Amino acid sequence: MQASHGNSVGSHKLYFQSKKGFQSRDLSQDYQNLDRRQSFDDSSQATCIPHNTSYELYCTLNSSSTASVSMCSAYRSSSTTKLTPNGCSLSPEDAKLFPLDIHHSPDNTYGSPVSVSCITEDSNDLKDKLRDLETMMLGSNLDIVDSFNCSETKQVSTEPERWIEMREAILRQDLKKVLITCAQAVSDNDMLMAEWLMSELKPMVSVLGEPIQRLGAYMLEGLVARLASSGSAIYKALRCKEPSSSELLSYMHILYEICPYFKFGYMSANGAIADALKGENRIHIIDFQIAQGSQWISLIQALAGRPGGPPHVRITGIDDSTSAYARNGGLQIVGQRLSRLAESCKVPFEFSVGAMSGCEVKLENLGVRPDEAVAVNFALMLHHMPDESVSIDNHRDRLLRLVKSLSPRVVTLVEQESNTNTAPFLPRFIETLDYYTAIFESIDATLPRDNKERINVEQHCLARDMVNIIACEGAERVERHEVLGKWRSRFTMAGFTPYPLSPFVNATIKTLLGSYCENYRLEERDGALYLGWMNRALVASCAWK
């Protein structure tokens, strides 16, 4: 935990006092600029952590404490379902309800207190200018300056070269460099540098701009939140209008359709399950974080056409309240929809409910029967399980050992290829910036920058994950991704061995990518499939037994 998290009120007294002179702009105004004809509730305006100053946070998120819907915790969708040769179909009602699963630029102006004339070869003049800068930012209040200088937890940058370098980066619009340096200042507890760069970043970022500008708006949000509060307080601090469950479902469906990441994951997992369970008469699929259950539509339809008749299918759905909010109801809704589909396909079907978090799952909750062939699905879920760095319970490895005790025919894993679990703050910030730059660029290739739906998708489906990664620590940081190499080590320690993916699945996914931008890349390496944008791997899929 970084020093800046020590006391979210007392330790940041100077931070808020010293900002009295800044005119902070609420980035939610960008939405109003997008379409003046649309009217927004007063409740949609950002309301931030109250302090006894005029300082305002740079709120861009519509956030709440009820549902931090993750990019990975419940995106389950399927493309439009059609009538199959086997007679399988979805009712008009289910066709609307099934579509996906939720696991849940303007001109730049600068108000910098440092002018270009400050950059001089005269070292004495430079020191004077920097002293003037410090006075401008901190004000003339001696109590404030004294409290800053006396604080054991706050530091002031004394490197003139660093200030000059940053001023040059700002002038040439090097947003990535300024963001990283601001994060470094936060990491070093250099409040003077951090506050100055935050004030400079405000006019450089925009939810309507280029991918790096849009991403920068949310990365800046995370940095401010990290300084202003810790843990779950961020969601209480960013009290904006919460989208309804139907709106959230709609945003996730858009994300599912415009990017192939989730289709890739579900297709590869279903292919491995179908291959491992071929010839079995009774199969039991245990799906951790089942969400809407839409991943299983195509599998049920495929099993209906099996030579000799379909098997008896039982699905146990594990899920918590996050996805319940998105689907506007409990797991029985998922069971009813899948049951209607299976009936139309003439597939014997049974659904078991496991309404709990993965941390709460025990052997008796899974109800495994001796005559069933078991398959377990971990699709974009395991990274939410705390490991040994968070809790002595280490639910991440405990869950893998529990699943191994079931002797499953196959276990499928789909995860984001990112390293944010145990990384210190600054490397974690840089990794998040790099990862989501690729995500935002891929979205930019499909939806126009002034598209209101794109803004909602990025704001409600992606931004909260980023803020959680940047602003939170300990148990309150729930977005804890690991690269496949680390997952491989965990599965191996739990006693699993790799299960080879079917070449047919690989070919099917290549066909899928043909309908998307040519910058998507599919790679098979060490028994796993990787989907990425250009040279950056974003999602990995593999199977174990």
From TrEMBL:
<dbReference type="InterPro" id="IPR005202">
    <property type="entry name" value="TF_GRAS"/>
</dbReference>
<dbReference type="Pfam" id="PF03514">
    <property type="entry name" value="GRAS"/>
</dbReference>
<feature type="region of interest" description="Leucine repeat II (LRII)">
    <location>
        <begin position="333"/>
        <end position="365"/>
    </location>
</feature>
<keyword id="KW-0805">Transcription regulation</keyword>
<feature type="region of interest" description="VHIID">
    <location>
        <begin position="252"/>
        <end position="317"/>
    </location>
</feature>
<feature type="region of interest" description="Leucine repeat I (LRI)">
    <location>
        <begin position="173"/>
        <end position="233"/>
    </location>
</feature>
<feature type="short sequence motif" description="VHIID">
    <location>
        <begin position="283"/>
        <end position="287"/>
    </location>
</feature>
<protein>
    <recommendedName>
        <fullName>Scarecrow-like transcription factor PAT1</fullName>
    </recommendedName>
</protein>
<feature type="region of interest" description="SAW">
    <location>
        <begin position="471"/>
        <end position="545"/>
    </location>
</feature>
<comment type="similarity">
    <text>Belongs to the GRAS family.</text>
</comment>
<keyword id="KW-0804">Transcription</keyword>
